[in-house]
Amino acid sequence: MHNNKLRRLILAAVLPFFGVVAAFGIAPDTATEKVVVFKVVEEVALPELPVSANAVEAYWQEGRIQRGDTIASVLSRLQVDDPEALQLLRENREARALYQLVPGKTIRAKVTGEGRLLALRYLAGSDVYSVERAGETLEVSRQPAQLETRTMMASGEIRSSLFAAADAANLSDAVAIQIADIFSTDIDFHRDLRKGDRFSVVYEALYHQGDLIRTGRVAAAEFVNQGKVYQAVYFQNSEGKGGYYTLSGKNIRKAFLRSPLEFSRISSGFSNARFHPVLKQWRAHKGIDYAAPTGARVKATADGVVEFAGRHHGGYGNLVVLRHQSKFTTWYGHLSGFARGVRKGSRVAQGDVIGYVGATGLATGPHLHYEFRINDVHQNPLRVVMPSAPPITTENRAAFEAAAQPLALRLEVLRGTNLARLD
Questions:
Q1: pTM above 0.70?
Q2: Percentage helix, strand, coil, to 5, in the chain?
Q3: Domains delineated in the chain
Q4: Which of 171, 226, 257, 414 is the most buried (most CB within 10 A)?
């Protein structure tokens, strides 16, 4: 027993000095022989690989367009030292997009070790411009970009304006405008927004090889305005007709939009006694004035037929009058111009652009004068109760719920995220 204990202690002391310990066991009393090892060095001749006389070492360089860049400065940054190629690009009319570089976009160049340009790739709009060297010339081609659709989510809090909050959440103006348009029949974005209002949005984004090309349709949105929650999901039926609905299937669209402008401020409200800034006398103001820059788009607040489009001899200046159904009319005055196709008898849909803000007629500055009449009696468009559009039909109910449920879950997830803010 004493010998076994001593043997274990010796073994424990010796093992750490061995670089490798075998992972197999040796039976007691086994005779082992010393293995003789011979070192052999032999030269092996490698076969020579045929090298083409035209083989040129080349590699792809990628860079991002910076403000003030020219095609020459970009190619120089991409290690291109090829004045001849630059001259060929200048002479090629198909390469004009390369002289209208957009900051932030990506450009790639295939370059030899000597700086010779072999190929170029640049995405302009939704097209990919390709430049390929063919002998001593450069061939330019344009192909539609292969776009990948991704579903994106974002949330934000109003600190000053919807656009500012959208910027803080890294959302494009196109998405912010859609949010305002979706909820425009319930929320007046000119006067109803409050600091602390919140929004969440699920939307499509189109990418090409990792680069964002443009944002697509908003699939779902939630807006909390003064504590009241508004939700909307997009649904397209089997006939291809789509729109936004509440989670219960109610159409969020009303027959009339609350405002004919996307973003502006009310400079003069509906009143029975207002001091006219031009006539310098007190008189009724039977409409709403929206202050906006000249050229701002004016939209039809409902489906209708153009009853009048032209110069009005009174104080309206350039005027469009739309008739909706039989008893409703809307008036749009002081326009700087009319949208193409807007003429007496033409049909317009809700949201169509019908004209542009101006200061024609009796106006001290650019603004839109908007009137809402029922049976030719003036109504306050901010207070009149608007009828709703048709809800989800019974035959579309199952398909709607299948489409709305996952979108509702995404909005619920967003509700618990940290909101993007901009003071």
A1: no
A2: 20, 35, 45
A3: 58-144 (3.10.450.350), 147-253+388-423 (3.10.450.350), 265-379 (2.70.70.10)
A4: 171
